[in-house]
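Reminder: ligand-aware prediction takes two inputs, not one.
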Amino acid sequence: MSTTWEPVIGLEIHVQLKTATKMFCRCRNGYGGEPNTQTCPVCLAFPGALPVPNRRAIEETIKLGLALECTIADRAIFHRKNYFYPDLPKAYQISQYDEPLCANGRLVVPTADGEVEIGIVRAHLEEDAAKNVHVATSGRIQGATATLVDFNRGGSPLVEIVTAPNIHSADVAKRFLQLLRQTVVELGLSDAELDKGSMRFDVNVSVRPAGSDELRTRTELKNMNSFNFAAKGIEREIARQIKIYENGGTVDQETLHFDPTAEESAPMRSKEEAQDYRYFPEPDLVPLHPAPEMIEGLRGQIGELPTARIRRIANTLSFYDADVLVTGGLDRLWAAVVDGGADPKEAANVLANAFVATGINPSAVNPEEFTKLVASRSEIPRAVFDDALSHVGDPGFSAEPYVAQKAVSDASALEPVIAAVIEANPGQVEQYRGGKQGLLGFFVGQVMKETGGSADPRVVSELVREQLGA
Ligand code: ADP
Ligand code: MG
Ligand code: ZN
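Here is what comes back for the chain with magnesium ion:
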């Protein structure tokens, strides 16, 4: 007897808003200041200091809620979430509990096998904690000699987005996260940079017999900051739970620490230590009643969203190309290049290969110059093209000097050069003909040198092989 298991995954995502000031005070909100320079009596929790909500943060949260097709509450309130930790000077975090700003939305995730709708339970606004800095070479708490607190981040606006437990594969979870990130970035809410912590997520995982709709005990992988690690962590957790059930065991509700280099995910804390946050309404803040005109104004600021664009572009290109272009933030540049006359597929390939690998910011690229470059791709030497690509994001980039270096791919132009190289290197020719095939590269290199790098190495290699009579 063997059961087929269905994974059940729910995500909780935190996104740091890039408002000018913090959530409840007028301190600068931003990464990178000297420790403890962006603080005031409110965000340091001096007695008697009172919070004043950041209107912009509220608007941005509503905007995201609209993009996620949520219902925007006509009354929302803040709660105090109580816990003790050195990064929380008030010993409570101002958050939202049972009356969040946004609820009951969805994000449609296109996949190669069709579209999957992921439910959004809520999107709410809260303040971030400060940052504990562990003083030791590793930067981790283990082995640290001291822990210092940098309050600059304390009180920054954070949006928390909670999905329904209706994601059923690691791949869809990863795509959801990529799509959500792109949506947030395009709405201008956040840089959502995983390596800087401006987007982080917790992953909840359980499994159940396929066909059942029960929700079994879940475990949680906390504070992940890479889409690939999240997918790996989910896969590993699914496999672990299935094994437990198949051996007749039960899964404990616990928080696991995912270390991609370790074989197993180590428990961080278990249910016994689960916290009771003693939520209660924040008495220092009045309820929020977003005005309908304000909500409609915000709705008007939302352009065509990533899901819709993937859907549209997948009519021209494959789903995979559409997905890479849109979630990589490359599709607007792609469209401009295609409008300029470039071949859609070729342009997509260049963008996907070059930009994703080099990390060039597509918004720094001049579409006209880029179009010229893509159009000349088959006519200029590969090395020249690659070099040009690495500079397309430079201010004032011009395709002209690169395009001018036309490749010599015409056999009639290359043959005399190749003949000369062969004649000049009789020793190597003999060795090559004697079986030392590796010398092909040597001849190609010589020809490239003679042509000043303007030959197409693929063509040269073909012709050299022919002339040497391998
Ligand atoms: P809590 O309030 O304890 O954090 P929630 O009900 O808010 O619990 O759920 C937190 C996250 O866990 C949500 O993303 C939800 O989709 C997910 N989740 C809840 N139950 C399960 C389950 N059985 N399996 C997987 N994910 C789950
Ligand atoms: Mg939760
Ligand atoms: Zn402050």
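The mean pLDDT is 91. The pocket of zinc ion (ligand 3) is lined by residues 22, 25, 27, 39-40, 42-43, 155 (CB under 6 Å). We will return to this case in the review session.
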